[in-house]
């Protein structure tokens, strides 16, 4: 990697209410969700509060919750990029 060059990272805003509903439906704690997903407590907090997280984290959360990743995306993030061939909010 070149010094001073930031890599392009796609970040996604999740719908915190959907994340919470899926977690409660699984009858698991926030801590257990993080453990099942292999994510830090900070990343789970970000997801639950609609803050941007990386694609791999979205996939891990979706897998741990037993839902499709697109189900977790905030509707504004999904609709902003649907015409661009995907559902991403790129930052960087």
Give an overview in words.
With 92 residues, the protein is mainly alpha-helical. The protein has one domain: Orthogonal Bundle (434 Repressor (Amino-terminal Domain)), CATH 1.10.260. It has helices spanning 16-25, 30-37, 41-48, 55-65, 69-72, 75-81; strands at 9-13, 52-54, 89-91. Helices cover 52% and strands 12% of the residues. Strands 2-1-3 form a three-stranded antiparallel sheet.
Task: From the structure above, extract its key features.
single chain; 92 residues; mainly alpha; 434 Repressor (Amino-terminal Domain); three-stranded antiparallel beta sheet; 6 helices; 3 strands; globular; disordered C terminus
How would you write the strand order of the largest sheet? 2-1-3
Order of helices and strands: EHHHEHHHE
How would the global form be characterised? Answer: globular
Note the total helix count: 6
The chain-level mean pLDDT equals 82
By CATH, the architecture is named Orthogonal Bundle
- The CATH superfamily is lambda repressor-like DNA-binding domains
- Quickly count the domains: 1
Structural class: mainly alpha
**Helix fraction by DSSP (H/I, runs of at least 4):** 40-55%
Gyration radius, to the nearest Å?
14 Å
Topology, element by element:
Blueprint: E1 9-13, H1 16-25, H2 30-37, H3 41-48, E2 52-54, H4 55-65, H5 69-72, H6 75-81, E3 89-91
Antiparallel strand pairs: 1-2, 1-3
């Amino acid at each position: 990697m070149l010094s001073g060059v930031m890599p392009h990272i796609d970040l996604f805003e999740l719908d915190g209410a959907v994340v919470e509903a899926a977690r409660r439906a699984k009858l698991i704690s926030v801590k257990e969700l993080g453990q099942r997903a292999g994510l830090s407590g900070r990343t789970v907090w970000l997801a639950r509060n609609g803050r941007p997280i990386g694609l791999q984290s979205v996939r891990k959360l979706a897998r741990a919750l037993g839902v499709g990743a697109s189900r977790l995306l905030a509707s504004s993030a999904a609709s902003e990029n649907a015409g661009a061939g995907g559902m991403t909010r790129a930052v960087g």
